[in-house]
TrEMBL record:
Keywords in alphabetical order: Membrane, Transmembrane, Transmembrane helix
Name of this protein: 50S ribosomal protein L35
Spans through the membrane: 6-26, 33-50
Species annotation: Roseovarius bejariae
């Protein structure tokens, strides 16, 4: 798997996990799915950062996101 793709999937999963966590807490439910999604997101992000030479900086995130979306949707 391409590290850029793993990074973008990890970011998207992380956003959904935060939303799921907030929803579970406000409904007084155990955030089991949110916890699993956070772990999966973190694993993807760590793997992507470890496998890309030089890693990612904050300024690279929008460019990487757009590049991956353009590559796989076009």
């Amino acid at each position: 798997m391409d590290p850029d793709l793993a990074f973008v999937i990890g970011l998207v999963l992380g956003v959904f996990a935060i939303l799921s966590l907030v929803s579970a807490i406000t409904d007084a439910r155990a955030p089991r799915v949110a916890a699993f999604t956070i772990v999966a997101s973190g694993a993807l992000l760590v793997w992507a950062i470890a496998n890309k030479p030089g890693g990612y900086s904050i300024n690279d995130i929008p460019d990487t996101f757009l590049r991956v979306v353009a590559k796989y949707l076009a």
